[in-house]
Amino acid sequence: MLKRAEPRLHLGLLFFAVLFSDFLLGVFYWTGQEQAYIPADFARLHYISFSFPYSHGLLASLLWSVLAFLLARYYWRNRDGAKIGIILGLAVFSHFILDFIVHVPELPVLGRESVKLGLGLWNHMAVALTVEMVLVVVGLVLYLPVAKQYGASGRIGVLILMVAFSVLTVAGMTSSTPPDVTTVAMSWIAAPLALSGIAFWLDQPARQSK
Length: 210
Known about the structure:
Elements: H1 2-5, H2 11-18, H3 20-30, E1 35-37, H4 42-45, E2 49-51, H5 53-56, H6 58-75, H7 81-102, E3 107-108, E4 116-117, H8 125-146, H9 152-174, H10 181-202
Antiparallel strand pairs: 1-2, 3-4
Helix pairs in contact: 2-7, 2-10, 3-10, 6-7, 8-9, 9-10
């Protein structure tokens, strides 16, 4: 939807903006500022618990979104910088909105000891995954018409990328075997970079304009 609102934005940049909170989580985890825990009943829950006020808190998410807006407005200052900044800011904040829906109450409002938010859809994993897959399909339906000018290879590439990402997501969120947190923490940094890099490459025509 955001790509449709501003076709000049690289799909890769939008991917990274949406996944920026997870990228920060990986950085803050490795620097010891945020933590991840495997619940004792992981086989039943299928999800990791977090203490992540700087990457996923409400105030933090708003601040990162404002920063994205300011950077985009400066970079595109001669080409609708405010509009592009708003779109990138919304992309960054969209991560908090989706996490608010699926996470149990662990998203802090202000800081580590503040009120925690989360509707807990992960407690109904089948429903949560269905919602996420529906969002993927809706995103593709909105994106593919915009991508007609990019050729069949680009459209098919994005489709394959999203199917692969969805399969990995479902596999990870339905496994009863506790993951290695260190390995998962590496993926929080690597996955946003890899996905955005692939999307940037597939969105080739967007490279030609700033």
